[in-house]
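Practice problem 4.
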C-alpha cells in the first residue's frame, strides 16, 4: 500500500477536450470536500469536475454529470490498481465540442489519472498496531530502550502494581519486539496486541 508524498498533476487533450488529472494526498472525506471547493473555484468554466476518493473507511465517487460509470469509476480503478490510499483523484474537463462516447470518456478519465501518477511520488504506508506491555517498574527503562530501537511510540503509561504501557508499533516489528522483550526480561513481561 502506498500514498502520495505531494500533489501531482497532468493534462491531456482528446478531440479538443482538455482533461486535467489531479492527485491530492489527504486523510478524510472532509478534506476532500474542502479541496473540491477550491478546485471548482479555480475552474469556474469547466463542464465537469469528477472525482474518486480512496481513504481509510471513507471512499467515494462522483461522475459530476458525465454518463454513469464513465468518469469516476475508471479513475477509481486506476487508484486501486496503483494500490494507493489516502488520495483524492480529480479530473477537471473542459469540453472541446466533440462527443467522445462512453468508451472514449472511460479511457480519457482513466488516462488523465494515469498520467498524473507518472509525475507522482509514492511512499510506502506502514501499518501500525497497538501493543500493551505490562512490566515491573524496575524494567521500564529497558523496555523503553528496546521500543526506541524499533521506532515504537509510547502513547500512555499507567502505574499500579506494574507499569502498563500503551504503545504504537509498526506491524513488521511486532514479532521482533515481542521476542527481544521476552528474552531480555527473561519472560517477566506481559504483552497484548
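Answer key:
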Amino acid at each position: 500500500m502506498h500514498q502520495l508524498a505531494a500533489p501531482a498533476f497532468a493534462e491531456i487533450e482528446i478531440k479538443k477536450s482538455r482533461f486535467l488529472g489531479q492527485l491530492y494526498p489527504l486523510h478524510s472525506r472532509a478534506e476532500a470536500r474542502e479541496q473540491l471547493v477550491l478546485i471548482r473555484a479555480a475552474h469556474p468554466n469547466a463542464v465537469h469536475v469528477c472525482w474518486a476518493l480512496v481513504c481509510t473507511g471513507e471512499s467515494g465517487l462522483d461522475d459530476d454529470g458525465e454518463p454513469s460509470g464513465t468518469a469516476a469509476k475508471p479513475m477509481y480503478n486506476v487508484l486501486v490498481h496503483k494500490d494507493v490510499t489516502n488520495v483524492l483523484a480529480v479530473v477537471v474537463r473542459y469540453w472541446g465540442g466533440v462527443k467522445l462516447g462512453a468508451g472514449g470518456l472511460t479511457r480519457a478519465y482513466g488516462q488523465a489519472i494515469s498520467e498524473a501518477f507518472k509525475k507522482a511520488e509514492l511512499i510506502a504506508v506502514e501499518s501500525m498496531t497497538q501493543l500493551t506491555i505490562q512490566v515491573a517498574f524496575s524494567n521500564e527503562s529497558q523496555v523503553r530502550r528496546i521500543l526506541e530501537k524499533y521506532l515504537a511510540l509510547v502513547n500512555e503509561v499507567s502505574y499500579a502494581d506494574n507499569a502498563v504501557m500503551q504503545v504504537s508499533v509498526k506491524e513488521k516489528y511486532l514479532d521482533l519486539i515481542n521476542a527481544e522483550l521476552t528474552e531480555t526480561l527473561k519472560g517477566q513481561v506481559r504483552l497484548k496486541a
